[in-house]
Amino acid sequence: MSTYVPVQSRPRATGLPGAGLFANYAKTALLMAGLVALLAIGGNAVGGYQGMLMFGGLGLLMNFVMYWFSDRIALMAHRAQEVGPSEAPTLHTIVGRLASRAGMPMPRVYVIPDQSPNAFATGRNPHHAAVAVTEGLLQILDERQLAGVLAHELAHVRNRDVLIATIAAGVAGLISSIGYVLQFGFMLGGASRDDEDRGGGLAALAWIIVAPIIALLIQMAISRSREYSADASGAALTGDPDALADALATLEQAKHRLPYHFAGPATAHLFIVNPLRGGVASVMNLLSTHPPIEERIARLRAMRA
To answer: What per-residue confidence (pLDDT) applies to 82?
Structure first.
């Protein structure tokens, strides 16, 4: 294994300034407003004024839940357990050094009880952030590669990428769910003739067809450039782009041998490498925030001085 060079002994990184921070806040606000507006329009088409109020209320509730509780939901979904310095001293040391170097508060540190090597970050801002790694990640990577992965995750936190991705995923999931509910309602008896005379039945049918498409487009709105940016910022933070490149290659190979047991489309976008496998992964790759691993590695290799 490569010898680990302490992060704080390297030249100070300049790849994590919050130049795009205002843009990320604006995108977050637009996603939230878009969710409420889209659901209100759909509700009005399906159920008139009452439907607009109900669907718009769902949007407001979703915004509230995703903004304040998305980190807890994600950590619970993946069985993550918080660990202290005495339980994971190396992990805490590396995270602390990177956070200090990036000018960020120390995030909470979690370990996921799974042998598939992977990691994700969550939290609405750097003051309410958490970094989670699997037991498999700690076993398969050396300290240098682990620092590269953790720097990538801290870059996401600093740039508020996690909040944007989580809200966008919530938007897509809620819109799809409403489409399925309406479809189920039609199967049980459909709209009344009065509704059809008002065009409500056709509007509901249109929503059933269009909702999944809208949901997919929202997922695609989470730009893949965020992963490239986090790779570049993380590499600049450690001063060692090869460390992250080596880690990505290792993680991509290992995930085919060691499937992740808690994987699901709702949170797959959070991870440093896509935890999904098989047919689901093939479909999600078309909409994923994860660019091809080969391209990410190539860009990191090109950063070598």
So the answer is: 97
DSSP letter, residue 195: H
- The pLDDT-based confidence of 6 (bands split at 50, 70, 90) is very low
| Other residues' Cβ atoms within 10 Å of the Cβ of residue 203 | 22
Per the listing, tokens 């896509």 go with 274
Q: Side chain identity at 302, as an amino acid letter?
A: A
User: What residues pair up with 292 in beta bridges, in sequence order?
Assistant: none
| 118: nearest Cα among 293, 302, 301, 285 | 293
CA distance 55 to 193: 23
Q: How many CB atoms lie within 10 A of CB 69?
A: 12
Give the whole-angstrom CA distance, residue 226 versus residue 234: 12
Residue 284 backbone phi and psi in degrees, to 5? -65, -25
User: pTM to 2 decimals?
Assistant: 0.73
Active site residues: 153
Q: Where are the domains of the chain?
A: 23-302
Please give the Cα distance from 93 to 98 (Å, whole number): 9
Q: Are 244 and 298 in contact (CB under 8 A)?
A: no
Contact 143, 4 (CB under 8 A): yes
